[in-house]
Request: fold
Amino acid sequence: MHLCTFEHAGQPQIGLVRGKDLITLADKLVGGDGPDAPAPLRLSSHQPMIDLITHWATWKPQVAALLADAQADFTLDEVHLLAPIPRPGKALAIGLNYLEHVNESIVGESRTVPEHQIWFPKLANAIHAPFDDIVLPRISQMTDYEAEMVAVIGQRCRHVPRERAHEVVFGYAVGNDVSVRDIQKRTSQWTLGKSFDTHAPFGPWITTADEVGDPHALEMRCWVNGELRQHSNTRLMMHTVWDQIAQLTQVMTLEPGDLIFTGTCSGVGAAFNPPKFLRSGDTVRVEIENLGAIVAHCVDEAPADRA
Reply:
């Protein structure tokens, strides 16, 4: 199933995507029986998508019934898609997880293939809608794109063994780990260069894990202005999604709705000679097999007196 967050007439809602149609879910899903059963899913919920994910075992049969029989409430053309989870508790990203990207990144630098997983946060202000503009910051001319698959955590978990990591994934989405290279490389900590406003678009919806099958067998592509810049397959990750979850949960508790940006492949703008960084007017499209595509136009940040 494909689950999205969208806005219509100024009101954020969550919905079920069926082809080009949308079925709203809030106020249609009723709680179960017993003291631990969730309350009915309401439009007024602060984080309805996280509520849906948290209580998916209760609501999945109801959502499946709506998918089969419910009349559409909107078409995709009638709504504004938002990030599927507009304010995740955590958005974590792994660096240098495809060997070809490692090789293109270490040219001219005294680095080798990393011995351990490299992690950094994409802070909540960076989370962005799948078709909204990417803002190029005033302080840099080195904004770059990174096509990535995003894994969405489905349950609270800690110390998850690799062989059971698939059990805690709710679904997957398409992401772009937008990166401001000069700010990123000023220090060994990448947080600032990875967390500018609008620099973590993802979506267009969450595809539930049962529809994806093996997440390590998906074609991934990125175009800039129609030019194919990145093309790889998720099977080429050096650290699989399961490896990533096993590592992260040794350190922290993951919660429903947390995001994992699982790494990018070769072909980023910084690797070209000369580099091909994003400029105002550029269009970036990231597409992953079975998950859909996200598209963003690039615009310059407003001058200081207009911010």
Summary: The mean pLDDT is 94.
